[in-house]
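Weekly modeling sync, notes
Attendees: S.R. (lead), two postdocs, one rotation student

Agenda item 3: backlog of single-chain predictions. S.R. asked that every request posted to the team notebook include the full sequence so nobody has to chase files. The rotation student volunteered to paste the first one in as an example of the format we agreed on. Action items at the bottom.

Example entry:
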Amino acid sequence: SSRYEDRRWLWFASAIAVGLWDDESWHIIATRWVQSARQSGALGDLLLALNVRVFVHLFAGELAAAAALVDEIEAVREATGAKLAPYHALGLAASRGHEAEAEAAIAACMDEVVTRGEGTGLSAIQRAAAMLYNGLGRYEDAVVAARQAAEAELGVANWGLAELVEAATRSDRRELA
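Predicted structure, as returned to the notebook:
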């Protein structure tokens, strides 16, 4: 159907917006994707769209809005039995600086993405770890995680590079930055 085709392309358009640092388009695309998935009742698509929308909120500093969507994702996951690595929960915990919660989410995500061989997923996890460690002042740990995240494709590499610059600068490794 054309609705399915539209949603399929929204994922790709979202990834391109992230890669181009086009936050305004990313916001519009993610919002449209969530609306389309909700209207059609496509719960699998809704999980992916909500996950992207969580990150739109996180990058805008809208942690309460992100938290509400994390709760919705968990409800959809429970209802459908879907297997989506908890990137959304990891991103929220890392953004809040909740070390124990974030590290538990890192472990949970790693188990799932390694099993499925999701390379970009590993990079997203490392980016979240780098952000967490930068926020906690653990800059050497952040450098290690950010270097791995920066090796990804599309937007995740950009996010990893931003964390790497911060971690390297704060650990007095200006040449690396």
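Discussion: group reviewed the output briefly. The radius of gyration is 16 Å.
Action items: rotation student to repeat for the remaining queue; S.R. to check formatting next week.
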